[in-house]
């Protein structure tokens, strides 16, 4: 009886926690389909009595949200692919290849995670301006790949690589496998869960970032969705229905990404905990 009581209490606690976590997103979607006159006169959690998608069509057609979404998707997708590739290469070197000063170099690089992003903003901007990359896709992408979040990505993959038995690599070496063969045929296939987690985290963080796009872009040709919503809010401060509709448009792709990769994310966390 006591075991059942504890189990019921645990599930109740988890359900409440899940509802608290999901509530802001549900309220955003709910408010985005409300009539403009009902938005400020009813609580955010009250279901819309007469849902309308006019807010979405208005913000999509009048404010060119499709371009902002496309810019954000291109930047986030390219950053995700490049960061996963380079992080895997660096993590493999730090985990499996012996060279002088490997541990010192690794921990020195990981220590850069302690440097606030704001400290590197001005030097990065001056560097991008020197190479004439202001308001360009490369200017948006390169700092993410080699700066923002890269140390954590390498640390995450390196720690996972170290949990893979060395005997598998030794057996492959005996069969004549090269270093690149070991990397592509053993390490990468066995690391799919953590790579899916890293890809999801990188995509979401890049999608939501507003500070660097605010600094490096100055026109609509490269403006991302987070910056577009901020600009929309400043232009239509009293029309919260449009702002919430734009926020919902930015939220839906992230929900789809998470639903597509949730199994891999949960599996990577479970495997890491077991090992």
Task: Give your account of this protein's structure.
Residues 69-261 form the ABC transmembrane type-1 domain. This is Carbohydrate ABC transporter permease. Belongs to the binding-protein-dependent transport system permease family. By secondary structure, the protein is mainly α. The chain contains 14 helices and no strands. It has helices at residues 2-32, 36-39, 54-62, 65-96, 102-110, 117-130, 137-146, 150-161, 166-174, 179-190, 192-208, 211-216, 225-235, 240-274. The longest helix has 35 residues, at 240-274. The chain starts with a helix and ends with a helix.
Radius of gyration: 23 Å
Give the overall average pLDDT: 82
Count of domains: 2
Globally, the shape reads globular
- Tell me the span between the first and last alpha carbons: 33 Å
- CATH architecture name of the largest domain: Orthogonal Bundle
Q: CATH superfamily assignment of the largest domain?
A: MetI-like
| CATH top level assignment of the largest domain | Mainly Alpha
Share in helix: over 70%
How many β-strands, per DSSP?
0
At CATH level 3, the topology of the largest domain is MetI-like fold
Task: Assess the beta-strand content as a share of residues.
Answer: under 5%
List segments where confidence is low: pLDDT < 50 over at least 5 consecutive residues: none
Report the major sheet.
Answer: none
Number of helices: 14
Query: Secondary-structure element order, as H and E?
Result: HHHHHHHHHHHHHH
Q: What structural class should be given to the helix and strand makeup? A: mainly alpha
């Amino acid at each position: 009886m006591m075991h059942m009581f504890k189990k019921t209490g645990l599930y109740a606690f988890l359900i409440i926690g899940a509802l608290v976590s999901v509530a802001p997103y549900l309220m955003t979607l709910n408010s985005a389909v409300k009539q403009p006159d009902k938005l400020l006169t009813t609580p955010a959690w009250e279901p819309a009595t007469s849902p309308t998608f006019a807010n979405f069509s208005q913000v999509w057609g009048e404010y060119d949200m499709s371009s902002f979404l496309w810019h954000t998707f291109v930047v986030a997708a390219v950053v995700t692919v490049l960061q996963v590739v380079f992080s895997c290469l660096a993590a493999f070197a730090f985990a499996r290849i012996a060279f002088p000063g490997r541990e010192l170099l690794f921990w020195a690089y990981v220590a850069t995670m302690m440097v606030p992003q704001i400290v590197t903003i001005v030097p990065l901007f001056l560097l991008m301006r020197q190479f004439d990359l202001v308001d360009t896709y490369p200017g948006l992408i390169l700092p993410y790949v080699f700066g923002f979040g890269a140390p954590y990505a390498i640390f995450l993959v390196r720690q996972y690589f170290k949990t893979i038995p060395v005997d598998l690599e030794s057996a492959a070496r005996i069969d004549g496998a090269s270093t690149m063969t070991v990397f592509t045929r053993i390490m990468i296939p066995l690391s799919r869960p953590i790579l899916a987690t890293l890809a999801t985290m990188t995509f979401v963080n890049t999608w939501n970032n507003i500070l660097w796009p605010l600094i490096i872009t100055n026109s609509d040709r490269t403006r991302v969705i987070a910056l577009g919503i901020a600009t929309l809010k400043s232009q239509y401060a009293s029309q919260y229905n449009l702002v919430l509709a734009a926020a919902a448009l930015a939220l839906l792709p992230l929900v789809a990404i998470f639903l597509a990769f949730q199994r891999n994310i949960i599996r990577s966390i479970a495997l890491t905990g077991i090992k």
